[in-house]
Structure formats: structure tokens, C-alpha cells
Amino acid sequence: MPVKTKVPQGDILSIDIGGTNIKSCLLSPKGKLLTDFKKIPTPKNSTPEEVLKVIKKLCTDFKKFEKVSIGFPGYVKKGIVQTAPNLAENKWLNVDLAQQVADMFGKPVRLINDADQQGLGIVSGKGFEIVFTLGTGFGTALLFDGELLPHLELAHLPVSKTEDFDEYIGDRGFHKVGKKKWNERLKYIIEIYKTVFNYDKLFIGGGNSNEINFDLDKNIKLVSNKDGIKGGAKLWLAKEKYHVFTTYPKKK
Length: 252
Known about the structure:
This is ROK family protein. With 252 residues, the protein is an alpha/beta fold.
């Protein structure tokens, strides 16, 4: 059985699992970057076993940390992965990834959706804020006064008879229709979000955010991956609520 103890103070190993790369770094409790980012390409056969091998290899040199934050590209509930649309197909249902990483390092783990983790580091903490990540897929995070709301896989809402938001505005969509048409699609999605959510601020990040070629509203801001780094630390300041859940290593 996992042993619950008081969460230790100290530095944080932050891991970001993406469809293209898996990255890690050490953060101070306040979110200061203590090491350079290390990254390894996400294995083509991105099963849980292969991803865990990469995490172990990636983090070999990181010794002094007390807890682990993980951003994962899919739906996560209480440390259990439910979906992973951009990783190995049909291999990620009910995977106790947080427990396996906690046991690997002997440290407590918090595992949430990757856009949610980045969102914690980006938002101002005032009002209703939404974060888009335009990368391999289409990530979204919703926060109110800086607190994460329950994660919604909005990327999988249908936008046409054959495509969901992930396919429509993610990397596949970008390469399928080209930059000009992709920007028109993004404008269309922003208009949908303005109408449906009436957000106070929208932040847009991810690799393809560099391809945006139109003027954004005053309450929309472009952000970089560096802006979201603090999310790995802020995750440990968040209340255990909704999908913020601490997984402790099992007693040996």
C-alpha cells in the first residue's frame, strides 16, 4: 500500500511528456529553473513501458529532489491515465503512471494533463482564464482565479463530420492545409471560444503558436514554453481538488 506522509519541502523534478519529446528539469519550490532542460524524443512505440524507460534515462543525473510533477498529454484522473491520443494506441487505459513513477524514484508524484500543468505556470490568477497549446495536438486548460477547473478534453469535440479539434488545429491539420488555411481555422476556433466561454484572458502557447499571422485581441496573449515552467512548482502549491492528487510511493 502507498504510504501517506506529509509532503516534503524541497526541489521538484518536473517532467513534461509530449507527443514529440519528453522533457525534464529541476525547479525550486517557487518555480525557479535550477537546471537546464533535458529532453529525449518520445519513442515511436510510445507504450507505458517505453515511456517509463525514457523517464528513467532522462532523470538519471537528477539526484536532489523531494517530489515529482508530471504533465501528460491526455486525460488523467487521480494519477491514473485514461487516454493518450498522441501516444501508443489503445495502450494507456487505466495506467497507474503516477504510482509507477513514485515507486521508481521513491518520491511523491502529482500527475495532471500537460496543458493544465503549463496553465498553472502561465495564468495571471485573476478571473476566468483559458490556455491553448498548439503542438502535436490541441491542448486546453481552464482556470478560475488561478485554480484549475476539472479538465475537459475539448480537443475531442467534433468540429466537422470527420475531424475533431485535435485533427483540425493540431500538427496534422497544420501540415494538411498549410499555414494560411490553418490560421483561418484558428481564428474560427477563437471565435467559438469567445462565444461559448466568454473568458477574461486567453493564452496561446505551443510550437505552432509561432505560426500565427493575424492580430490578436487585447485579452489574448502569446506565451512560450518557458512561461509555463513554473507550473511544475505551482502544482505542488495547489489544493488537492478535482484532478490534483498526490500519489505516494509504496512501502517496500
